[in-house]
Design goal:
By secondary structure, the chain is α+β, with helices and mostly antiparallel strands. It contains 9 helices and 9 strands. It has a single domain, classed as Gcn5-related N-acetyltransferase (GNAT) (Aminopeptidase). Helix 7 (about 190-205) links the parallel strand 5 (about 175-180) and strand 6. Helix 5 packs across helix 6 (about 145-165). The protein starts with 10 loop residues before the first strand and ends with a helix. This is N-acetyltransferase domain-containing protein.
């Protein structure tokens, strides 16, 4: 069964005095804008995005030029997920449930997760239709963006294949959590865990009876990595290491125009690939 063939019923959860609706994302412009702005705020200091974008300093605000370019990148990523028949799931803060003393947020997308099922991947034609050319214009001349994405993907896939092979599994057998975030105003309310566990339940629903599929992801954040481990994900050793000679440990490039300053400090950066072997157990323990 393909992931897009299984039915999904929206449901509500309560967290931190708020009520959130967990549902599939819509493809309209307003929804995509809200999701992308939330992601831009969440990933301002992400080392992988620094690597892709070629920044020399970490962006400090979504209102900056770098922040706006980040929004454009994630808008293309999430739209491509929908167009590629992946799963884009959001947690929407229900405004009618707000307390009287709370101000309604114009952007009620509190969190989102982009998934690809086994033998599914982002389609090139989908990325073009999603507007990736805008990001290529923003980042391409600075970083040769496509080349950097390919390097990142190649290293990650090699780690996944190396870990799955001893169990007679291929990368195409796994569910891939491409991206997940919680918008800044809603951090600390357990929404990431709720979306991951929803993904586990859906993956089991799509799998043949008795088969528990592996779930894989990459983590570039010291903040999120322990959360994934708490959910049962294991770090694949050794850590992935890319960008040597091009960026520092933050994913940022050199500051001078010739690109040669502080070359000894351009040691690249590390991130982790992670795998979850038993999402059925994780679901059962949460019920």
């Amino acid at each position: 069964m393909k992931s897009s063939d299984a039915s999904f019923t929206p449901f509500e959860i309560s967290r931190g005095g708020h009520t959130f609706l967990i549902r599939e994302a819509r493809s309209d412009s307003k929804e995509l804008d809200d999701i992308a702005w939330g992601a831009a705020g969440a990933f301002l200091d992400d080392i992988v995005m620094n690597w892709f974008s070629g920044v020399t300093e970490i962006p400090t605000s979504v209102s900056s030029k770098a922040g706006f370019e980040l929004y454009q990148f994630y808008r293309a990523v999430f739209k491509a997920c929908i167009l590629s028949r992946g799963r884009l799931i959001v947690a929407e803060n229900l405004p009618e449930r707000l307390q009287k003393n709370e101000v309604e947020n114009k952007n009620n997308i509190a969190a989102a997760a982009a998934w690809y099922g086994p033998k599914e991947d982002v389609q090139i034609i989908a990325t073009l239709r999603a507007g990736i050319l805008i990001t290529l214009r923003n980042y391409g001349l600075r970083t040769l963006l496509v080349r950097r994405i390919r390097e990142y993907t190649k290293v990650s896939h090699a780690a996944f294949r190396r870990e799955l092979k001893p169990r007679m599994l291929n990368y195409d057998d796994a569910w891939y959590l491409q991206c997940i975030f919680t918008a800044k105003p809603y951090e600390g309310q357990g929404l990431m865990s709720a979306l991951v566990r929803e993904g586990f339940r859906y993956a089991l629903k799509c799998s043949p009876s008795g088969i528990v599929p592996p779930v894989v992801l990459e983590s570039s954040s010291d903040k999120s990595r322990p959360r994934y481990q708490h959910l049962g994900f294991e770090i694949i050793e050794p850590w992935c290491h890319i960008g040597i000679g091009k960026v520092d440990s933050r994913g940022c490039g050199p500051t001078n125009k010739k690109g040669k300053a502080d070359s000894k400090k351009l040691d690249g950066f590390k991130y982790t690939c992670m795998v979850h072997w038993d999402c059925r157990k994780a679901v059962e323990n949460n019920e």
